Amino acid sequence: MAEESEMPIDMEEPKTAGKGSSKRVRGLLILLLILVCAAVFGVRQWVQSKTHIETDNAFIESHVHSVSSRIPAMIKRVAVVDNQFVHKGDLLLELDASDYQARARTAAASLNMARNETSGDYAQVESARASIGLATAKLDQANLDLARGEALFAKEVIPKEQLDRLHTAKKIAEMQLKEAQEAEHHARAVVGMSVAGSNDARVAQKQGELETAALNLSYTRIVAPSDGFITKKSAEPGNYLQPGQSVMALVALEDAWVTANYKESQLTDVKKGQKVEFTVDSYPGRTFQGSVESIMAGTGSAFSMLPPENATGNYVKVIQRIPVRIAIDKRSDPEHLLRVGMSVVPTILTGKRFGEVIKGW
Q1: Facing residues of 93 across strands?
Q2: Quick one: pLDDT at residue 130?
Q3: With contact defined as beta carbons under 8 Å apart, do 62 and 340 qualify?
Q4: Gyration radius from the chain CA atoms
Q5: For the domain that residue 340 is a member of, what is the CATH number?
Q6: For 257-279, what is each residue's pLDDT tens digit?
C-alpha cells in the first residue's frame, strides 16, 4: 500500500519540470523583446538628436524703442497708457510749446529784418562800385595829365613845380581808387558776397535760426517711432523733462525673433533657412514655426563684458554656446501672443535622413 501511495508523486515531477522550463523560455523572450524595443527606441532617439536640434536656453526678443525728449520742456499731456498698442506716428506725449512758439516768432521776425537790412547793404555795394568807377576815371585822367606834363616839361614849356603837382595828383587818384576798392570789399563782406556761394550770409544765418526754432517746436509732440506696445511708462503731466530722459519704452512685437543659445557641438548641421518648431511655457500644447535666420559670429562669452583669458592660469575646457537668431513665422502667431523674454524650447529640423545620420556616424 505504501508503494501504491508513492506512484502518483513520481508521475507529477515531469509535469512540474516542463512548466518551469516553459516559464524560463517565456521570460527570456520577454527580456529579449524588451532589449530589442529599448535598442530601437535608443537608436531612434539618437537619430532624432542628430536631425532635431533642441535646446531650452532660448528666449523671445524684439526691438525695444526708448522714447525720450529731445528738448527741455514740461509735459502738458500724456496720450497713452501702459500696455496700449500704438501705430507709427501716433501721439505719445505733448510738451508745453509756449517758449518754443515765442522763439519761432522771434526767429521769423529776425529773418524779415535781415532781409530788409540786406537790401540796404546791396545798395551800399552798388554805391561802392560806382565810387570805384569814379576813382578809376580820375586815375586815368591823372595819368594822361602827367604824360602831357612830362612832355611839356621836356620842352621846357612848364616849370618843375607844375610837373610835381601832376605827380601828386596821380598819387592822390591811386589812393582814392584803393579806398573805393576797400569800401566795396567791406560792403560785400557785410552781405556775404566776399566768398563764392555765400551771398546773403546774414539772411542765411537768420533762416537757420528760424529752422532750428521750428524744429524744436516740432519736438514738443513726441510720436511713436513704430508700431508696438507701450511699457515702462513713467511720464506724467507736469513733469519736467531733460533732453535724453527716457519716459517710456515701445516694444515692436511685429518683428520679434527667438535667440537660442545652442552648444557649439550642436551646430554641425545647422544652416541658414532651416525650419524650426518651438514651444512656449505660457501656451502648452501649442507649436509655433520659424526658420534659422543667422548664426552669431562668435560665442556668447567672447562678447561678454569680461571675456575669458584662456591663455592665463589653469585652463578648463567648457562647451561654449553660440546664439542662433530664429525668425518667427508671423502666420503661426497672428494674435501676437509671444512676448519679449518668454522662455522658448526651439527644435531645428536639419532635414537629414536616417541613412545620412548612420553613414556620417
Answers
A1: 78, 222
A2: 79
A3: yes
A4: 47
A5: 2.40.30.170
A6: 999 999 998 888 889 999 999 99
Half-sphere exposure of 39 (CA within 13 A, CB side): 6
Cell readout for 148 is 602831357
- Whose cell is 523560455? That residue is 25
Determine how β-strand 52-54 pairs with β-strand 344-349: antiparallel
CB atoms within 10 A of CB 323: 20
Decide if 231 is inside a domain. yes
Q: Identify whether residues 177 and 231 lie together within a single domain.
A: no
Domain boundary among 218, 239, 270: 218
- Cβ atoms of residues 303 and 323 within 8 Å: no
Burial 270-303 (b: 16+ CB within 10 A, else e): beeebebbbbbeeeeeeebbbebeeeeeebeeee
**What residue type is 98 in one-letter code?**
S
Q: Please tell me the distance from the alpha carbon of residue 115 to that of residue 199, in angstroms, as a whole number.
A: 12
Q: What is the pLDDT of residues 193-249, one digit of tens each?
A: 544 444 466 778 888 999 999 999 999 999 999 999 999 999 999 999 999 999 999
Q: Are residues 354 and 234 in the same domain?
A: yes
Distance, in Å, from the CA atom of 136 to the CA atom of 15, rounded to the nearest integer, reads 149
- Among 171, 202, 218, which residue terminates a domain? 218
Who's near 73: CB < 8 A, 6+ residues apart?
Answer: 95, 96, 97, 99, 100, 220, 240, 241
**Could you tell me if 268 and 277 are in contact, meaning their C-beta atoms sit under 8 angstroms apart?**
no
Q: What are the residue ranges in the chain where pLDDT is below 50?
A: 1-9, 194-199
Q: What separation in angstroms does the CA of 109 have from each of 35, 115, 223? A: 95, 10, 29
